[in-house]
């Protein structure tokens, strides 16, 4: 928050002061300077894949999933922003999860929204969401909407790796709310849907009756359309990006940029709290801009740099980096690159508080 010159000291009488203190009251001019100081400012930062991979391998060698504390058997390495303790940003959390051949990350559900972006996938690596097995192929994005059961089952003979993205810091820290959480009584939830069910319900033909329940799941209420369980197959997303690049003009700040829409509404954001894009950068540096939303990026393909407030974050495939709110930034691909862009912009928009400008 912008700090103003300290006002001339205003003296209160000692009886006024002692009454205020005894009753837990304070005058505004004494509290306003302390607002906005709960968190350290977010730093621009990058995590190189090589370092993440070493951490993943070390952890995988040290601990089988079954040895992790019951209730949260997830082998995840979490990038932590300087000045924070538990996440890459104040709103968006990313983690890199691995499941070894034959392992199973047991079923649970929670109030936080989540998605998986597959890094090393396999037809027999399945995340099971709301009764359906979703095969995880490289670069597929699979939603785990709030309060849907999910477990991750590796029936392949290779270690699988993916990016977990959740709105945990927003819920747990910024809102200081509880991540309502429940373990399933079974490690593997029953598979009750045929493969492709959820995808098939959100195409051009949709259920004509009321069979499809689109109420907000679990104990929650609100006014946003719920996000269904859904797999955005990379094959299709990539084709959409390429068609766009062959036919259209790029956005000055984001290149050829496709939003992952909420399949329920056909519009972004994918979740009420987080929005996602795939961005193809192949026409040199983008223009610089800034916005009050936080952006986190994962490098799907290519190499380059993102210049944040004069600092160059040099990235290659699979690196993860963060652009703090309010910092001028632009991307500079070496040749052609594709980024996964993640933003908390919908939170700002919900309060009519989003703003961006050319830098
Ligand atoms: O796989 O369900 O990285 O619940 C953090 C919280 C992964 C998961 C994370 C989770 C999960």
TrEMBL record:
Q: Source organism's superkingdom? A: Archaea
> Does the record's keyword annotation contain Metal-binding?
no
Keyword Oxidoreductase attached = yes
Q: Identify the SMART domains for this entry.
A: Cupin_1
Q: Tell me the CDD domains matching this sequence.
A: cupin_GDO-like_C (cd06992), cupin_GDO-like_N (cd02216)
Q: Which GO terms describe its molecular function?
A: dioxygenase activity
Alphabetically sorted, this entry's keywords are: Dioxygenase, Oxidoreductase, Plasmid
- The Cupin type-1 domain extends over 243-359
Q: Which Pfam families match?
A: Cupin_2
Instruction: Note down the stretches annotated as region Disordered.
Output: 204-231
Q: Which PANTHER family match?
A: 1,2-DIOXYGENASE PROTEIN-RELATED (PTHR41517), CUPIN (PTHR41517:SF1)
Protein name as it appears in the record: Cupin type-1 domain-containing protein
Q: Which organism is it from?
A: Halostagnicola larsenii XH-48
């Amino acid at each position: 928050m912008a700090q103003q010159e300290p006002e001339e000291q205003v003296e209160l009488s000692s009886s006024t002061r002692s009454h205020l203190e005894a009753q837990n009251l304070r005058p505004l001019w004494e509290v306003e300077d302390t607002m906005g100081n709960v968190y350290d400012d977010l730093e621009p930062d990058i995590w190189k894949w090589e370092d993440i991979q070493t951490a993943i391998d070390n952890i995988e060698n040290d601990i089988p999933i079954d040895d992790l504390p019951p209730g949260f058997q997830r082998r995840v390495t979490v990038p932590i922003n300087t000045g924070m303790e538990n996440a890459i940003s104040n709103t968006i959390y990313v983690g890199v999860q691995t499941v070894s051949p034959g392992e199973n990350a047991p079923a649970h559900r929670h109030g936080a929204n989540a998605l998986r972006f597959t890094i090393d996938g396999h037809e027999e690596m399945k995340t099971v969401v709301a009764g359906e097995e979703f095969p995880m192929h490289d670069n597929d994005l699979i939603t785990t909407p709030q309060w849907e059961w999910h477990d991750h089952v590796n029936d392949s003979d290779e270690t699988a790796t993916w990016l977990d993205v959740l709105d945990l810091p927003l819920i747990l820290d910024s809102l200081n709310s509880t991540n309502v959480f429940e373990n399933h009584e079974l490690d593997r939830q029953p598979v009750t849907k045929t493969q492709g069910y959820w995808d098939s319900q959100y195409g051009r033909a949709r259920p004509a009756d009321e069979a499809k329940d689109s109420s907000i799941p679990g104990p929650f209420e609100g006014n946003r359309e719920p996000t269904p369980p859904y797999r955005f197959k990379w094959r299709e997303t990539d084709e959409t990006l390429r068609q766009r690049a062959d036919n259209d003009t790029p956005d000055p700040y984001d290149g050829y940029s496709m939003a992952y829409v909420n399949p329920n509404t056909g519009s972004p954001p994918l979740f009420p709290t987080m929005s996602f894009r795939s961005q193809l950068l192949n026409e040199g540096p983008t223009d610089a801009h800034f916005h009050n939303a936080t952006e986190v990026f994962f490098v799907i393909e290519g190499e380059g740099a993102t210049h944040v407030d004069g600092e160059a974050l040099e990235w290659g495939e699979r690196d993860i980096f963060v652009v703090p709110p309010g910092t001028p930034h632009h991307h500079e691909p070496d040749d052609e690159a594709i980024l996964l862009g993640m933003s908390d912009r919908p939170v700002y928009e919900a309060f009519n508080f989003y703003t961006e400008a050319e830098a």
